[in-house]
Amino acid sequence: MLHFFIVIVGVYIATIGFALLINVSPRALNLGGVVAVSGYLVYLAYSTFVGGYVGGNVFGAFSIGIFGMMAARYKKMPVIVFNTPALVPLVPGGQAYQVMKYVAMNQPHMAFYYLTQVVMIAGSIAMGFLLSELFIQLFYYTRRQILRKLDHM
């Protein structure tokens, strides 16, 4: 349980630290950290109970996209202010490091193995964001249609 708490606090602090590096407004720092923690919790839950880093990253990025849009509406700020720092825990930095290490050691098979992981994780993060945008657009479209029908009654 202590390990889980340390991981969550680490995700929050890493997100806030990265947000400070890229000059995110102080108004968005706390909520940006909460968005990152929520996305990482979804990633951890999927990876733990279902398995697979690709699906975990899709659902983690999807939840970051949804919660980021909700936070942006709440704070009346651009979505990118919340989504960009919240992605830090999902970025495949360890695998990218392994690619460069094995390239330098002249072991192309291992470098290619880790490169495929990097590409799959990056693609799954992009897919998660795409699906979250699609979901939000469908939600607001359906809501507008229902409200129009209610107005005509």
UniProtKB/TrEMBL annotation:
Belongs to the ThrE exporter (TC 2.A.79) family. It comes from Fructilactobacillus cliffordii. The keyword Acetylation does not apply. GO terms for biological process: succinate transport. It is found in: Cell membrane. The chain crosses the membrane at residues 6-22, 52-72, 79-100, 112-140. InterPro entries: ThrE_2 (IPR024528), ThrE_Dicarb/AminoAcid_Exp (IPR050539). The lineage of its organism: Bacteria, Bacillati, Bacillota, Bacilli, Lactobacillales. This is Threonine/serine exporter family protein. The keyword Cell membrane applies. It is a multi-pass membrane protein. Keywords: Cell inner membrane, Cell membrane, Membrane, Transmembrane, Transmembrane helix.
